[in-house]
Amino acid sequence: MIVCMTSPKLAIQTDLGRMYCRQVGGEAIVPSITTVISMDKLDLSGWAGYMAAKALSDDHRLVHAVGDRGQLRSLIRDAAGAAEAYRDSAAARGDRVHNYAEQRALRALDLEHDLEAAQAALEANNELGFARHFDQWWDDYNVQPIAAEVTVWNHSVGYAGTIDLVAKIGGRTSLVDYKTKNTDRDGFVKRPDDKVIMQLAAACKAEEQVVDAERGAWKEWGYGTDTMLLAVALGETGSRTFMAPPPALPDYWSKFYALRRNWEAAFKIAQSRASLVEITPPAQ
What integer is the mean pLDDT of 120-131? Predict the structure, then answer.
């Protein structure tokens, strides 16, 4: 049995990605939406190589290490982990920004929150620009929150996930996913990857939403496919809001469904530990 111990409360990290339980302390039985989407892998070897080369060229120790094979090997080892270090740093930053956004929504809902601590965490990492532009986005779009960090479940296909925000925006019920992004050379916050359309398409197909994670209480999902699906790119220099185009949703949902089957096959193979079996020549 795999026990849930991480946040969101019902999600845990496994060898095959993040999975969800029906209640705290239960067994993880379905993959997360993002884990399913991760089956559509990108080749990041070029980016990883660039990050390693950049880390090495930017290292102030390089000039002193030229001609010293031992020091060079040490610098190369450090540079080799540059892509992973960048990924981990970006993930930690994303967690801080998402936490601020969640606490901001909880405050607006008159629920228990700790917005000051979330803001302090951003300030400690020189990331207050994200908070400032998130607040500006909230005001500009006149966001009327309904729920924040909503864990949802789909039994028919077998997956779960957590939606950053359910809100009324422009008079329409909207499902919102935040993406923390860097700023490009022209000063614009970079756009989210179009895979977020698949993420939002799966979210709106939910069948249940959690009521009490500790008790494992759920209720019917109340927001169907007529909701507006938004991806909000949050950066230190601004924000950009994108809507998932309704005509594209069936195709993105079909791709998600196929990836879910791919994940299940990988899961069963991992569970069975099946591998090639060596055989001897046939008897003469």
Answer: 96
The beta-strand segments (E) located in 131-236 are: 144-154, 159-169, 172-180, 208-212, 217-220, 228-234
Residue 58 confidence (pLDDT) above 60? yes
Nearest of 65, 62, 38 to residue 52 by alpha carbon: 62
Helix segments in 59-194, DSSP class H: 62-65, 69-80, 82-108, 115-124, 128-140
User: Across-strand partners of 217?
Assistant: 212
Task: List pLDDT tens digits, range 60-86.
Answer: 675 566 666 666 677 666 656 665 666
Give the pLDDT confidence score for residue 1 in this predicted structure: 36
Domains, the chain, ordered by start: 11-271 (3.90.320)
Rg (CA), the chain: 22
pTM for the structure as a whole: 0.81
pLDDT for the residue 54: 61
CA 222 from centre of chain: 23
Contact 175, 163 (CB under 8 A): yes
Q: Is 28 exposed, middle or buried (0-12, 13-18, 19+ CB in 10 A)?
A: buried
* Side-chain half-sphere CA neighbours of 239 within 13 A: 24
